[in-house]
Write a structure and sequence with these properties.
400 residues; Neuraminidase; 3% helix; 6-blade_b-propeller_TolB-like; Glc/Sorbosone_DH; Quinoprot_gluc/sorb_DH_b-prop; Glucose sorbosone dehydrogenase
Length: 400
């Protein structure tokens, strides 16, 4: 078939850039319909195009010294814990234990990395769970060793916001979280597209991926915090060097960013939900426009920053991402699989590979566990998955 190759390792059909004219037209916004967090399209027949990668240059930077192998592997080392309810955010503590946020219960739980034992730290006040909103991403302060602060992104009755809370291990279980101190408020909220991923970058600045809350016009509005990647100081002020004066906006034209990760060259990547055609993995350049709602997936022009890789929505519906052993690893909700995207600089070094397809259901969050290890968390108890005995769970993976 002209311009196409079929991968043996996964289920994705990879279409090369040579067919750009027709696909660019198809990737433009279809105003009717919307893909929810589970990635199932709402078009008349439910059909979606096959996946695709776009190996194109993104932010300038030095190329990686050595490209990762074209074919990788994933080994499930063990199940760390089971019985989690609507888990969303995952943050490793110094020493190896894990913190988990529950979207619907608005709690933060500590998981003993060795035994899997769970201890509830407490419930976060002010969280208003509904639809795709609730207690979402969590992250540790870059000065956690001295300040013991946990940052969280959550949906309140009026907006999405970022807060920080003191974690006092000396207090009794259930009472270890201090009162939330609001760092940033005013991120648009909706039943859908609340974003929610937060992470501290190598620069010790706090990054947040937001959604446009179902109001597509917000993504192109630089005055709105919706449909953006935000960059701020730990106190919530615009970070030094941001592309727009006195603004926390770092990049715009996003639909619903749910994954943030940096490679070993400190380059930022982000995963993003498409509407009904293309989900995206983007290499982020400060100040760039990523196209939504004028473009979904690759546009082929110079106005918008094209994705590094893209997939049909039933193959991905991406949430968390992590960088390890030269690749970005992307958790898929609707796709129910873990994607490996080998990188060479800010280009794809080889076709993405799919792993664990259908084995553990919806995959929400993946974070580095050091070296060639990853933590992977499922999302089958959030009302959209097929929960099985033991769900939800955290897995330890070994990857190459």
């Amino acid at each position: 078939m002209t311009g196409r190759t079929r991968r043996v390792e996964g289920t994705m059909i990879v279409q090369r850039r040579a067919v750009s004219a027709v696909l660019a037209t198809a990737a433009l916004l279809l105003t009717a319909g919307c893909s929810s967090d589970d990635g199932e399209p709402s078009g008349a027949d439910g059909s979606t195009p096959p996946g695709r990668t776009a190996a194109q240059s993104s932010p300038p930077g030095p190329a990686a010294e050595e490209a990762p192998p074209a074919k990788g592997s994933v080994e499930v080392v063990r199940t760390v814990t089971t019985g989690l309810r609507s888990p969303w955010g995952l943050a490793p503590l110094p020493g190896g234990d894990l913190l988990v946020s529950s979207r619907d219960e608005a709690t933060v739980t500590r998981v003993d990395e060795k035994t899997g034992e769970k201890t509830e730290l407490g419930e976060v006040p002010g969280v208003s769970p509904a639809g795709e909103g609730g207690l979402l991403g969590i992250a540790l302060s870059p000065d956690y060793a001295s300040d013991h602060m946990i940052y969280a992104y959550f949906t309140s009755a009026s907006d999405n916001r970022v807060v920080r809370m003191l974690y006092d291990e000396k207090k009794s279980s259930g009472e270890q979280l201090g009162a939330p101190d609001t760092v940033l408020r005013g991120i648009p909220k909706g039943v859908v597209h609340n974003g929610g991923r937060i992470a501290f970058g190598p620069d010790k600045m706090l990054y947040a991926g937001t959604g446009e809350s179902g109001d597509t016009g917000l993504s192109q509005d630089k005055e709105s915090l919706g449909g953006k990647i935000l960059r701020m100081t730990p106190d919530g002020d615009p970070a030094p060097g941001n592309p727009f004066p006195d603004s926390v906006v770092y990049s715009y034209g996003h639909r619903n960013v749910q994954g943030l990760a940096w490679d070993d060259k400190q380059r930022l990547f982000a995963s993003e939900f498409g509407q009904k055609t293309w989900d995206e993995l983007n290499a982020i350049k400060p100040g760039d426009n990523y196209g939504w709602p004028q473009a979904e997936g690759e546009s082929g022009g110079s106005r918008f920053h094209d994705p590094l890789a893209q997939w049909s929505t039933d193959e991905a519906s991406p949430s968390g991402i992590a960088h390890a052993v030269g690749s970005v690893w992307m958790a898929g909700l609707g796709g129910e699989r873990l994607w490996r995207v080998p990188l060479e600089g800010t280009k794809t070094a080889a076709d993405p590979q799919a792993f664990l397809e259908g084995e553990y259901g919806r995959l929400r969050t993946v974070v580095p566990a050091g070296g060639d290890k990853l933590w992977l968390m499922t999302s089958n108890t959030d009302g959209r998955g097929d929960a099985k005995e033991g769900d939800d769970r955290i897995l330890e993976l070994k990857v190459t």
